[in-house]
Structures are given as C-alpha cells and as structure tokens.
Amino acid sequence: MAFDNTFWALIGLILFFVLIAYLKVPGMMSKALDKRSHQIRNEIEEARELKEEAKRQLAEFQRRRREAEDEAREIVAMAQREASALLEDAHRKSAEYVARRTQVAEQKIVQAEADAIAEVRASAVNIAVEAATRIIQERNVGGDGAMTDQSIAEVRRRLN
C-alpha cells in the first residue's frame, strides 16, 4: 500500500485533534470565552448603572433649571413691582411738590395783594391826611394850632 499525501494529511489532522484534546484546549477556550462573557456582562451592568446615574443627574439638572427659571421670573416680577411702586411714589411726590409750590405761590400772591392793599391804604391815608391838613389850615388861618394837630391826629387814627 502506498501512502499518498492525502493519507499523511489525514494522519496529521488526527494527531492535531489528539494533541488539542490532550492539552485540553477546548476547556481553556471555554474558560477564556466564559471569562470574556462574564467581563462583558460586568461592563454591560456597569454601563447600565452609569446610564441610570446619568438619567438621575439629567433629571436633577432639569429640576434645578426649572427652579432657576422660576426664581428668575420671581425676581423679574419683583423688580417690575418695585419699579412700578417707585414710579407711583415719584408721581405722588411730584404731585405733592407741585401742590406745595402752587400753595406757596398762592400764599405769596395773597401776601403781595395784602401788601399792595396796605400800601394803597397807607398812601390814601397819607394823601387824605395831607388834604385834611391843607383844608384845616386854610380854614383856620388865624386860629389855634392845637386844634389843627388834634384834628390831624383824629383823622390818622380813624383812617388807619
């Protein structure tokens, strides 16, 4: 019998399988694959936990953002209320100032009128006294000066 190359290739293949079985390569491969699958499962579980943590952090950040937006709206509303209150206060103070200035001006006008009336009266009294003095002096040309002085004093007293 002649052994050709095919026969020797078959013998080599069988020896190869025997050697692999003797060295327990399938068990080692199985262990390596099991170890690798366990490692992959752990990585998947860790990734799942990281994903859950990321979701929790996202929810927390969204909550904080909503709170910050609410707080910002409250601050803006408060600022608007303060601004309107300041504006109303300014209008009120302005109106009070105008009213006070108007009242002071009216009082000055009344005082000026009273002063003018008093001045006119004083001028009228002085004119009346001078006129009365002339008339009395003209009528009492040769008479007593005491009566003249008494009459002038009486006129002044009645006119003032």
From TrEMBL:
This is ATP synthase subunit b. The keyword Membrane applies. Keywords: ATP synthesis, Cell membrane, CF(0), Coiled coil, Hydrogen ion transport, Ion transport, Membrane, Transmembrane, Transmembrane helix, Transport. F-type ATPases have 2 components, F(1) - the catalytic core - and F(0) - the membrane proton channel. F(1) has five subunits: alpha(3), beta(3), gamma(1), delta(1), epsilon(1). F(0) has three main subunits: a(1), b(2) and c(10-14). The alpha and beta chains form an alternating ring which encloses part of the gamma chain. F(1) is attached to F(0) by a central stalk formed by the gamma and epsilon chains, while a peripheral stalk is formed by the delta and b chains. It comes from the Bacteria. F(1)F(0) ATP synthase produces ATP from ADP in the presence of a proton or sodium gradient. F-type ATPases consist of two structural domains, F(1) containing the extramembraneous catalytic core and F(0) containing the membrane proton channel, linked together by a central stalk and a peripheral stalk. During catalysis, ATP synthesis in the catalytic domain of F(1) is coupled via a rotary mechanism of the central stalk subunits to proton translocation. The chain crosses the membrane at residues 6-25. The gene is atpF. GO terms for cellular component: plasma membrane; proton-transporting ATP synthase complex. PANTHER family: ATP SYNTHASE SUBUNIT B, ATP SYNTHASE SUBUNIT B', CHLOROPLASTIC.
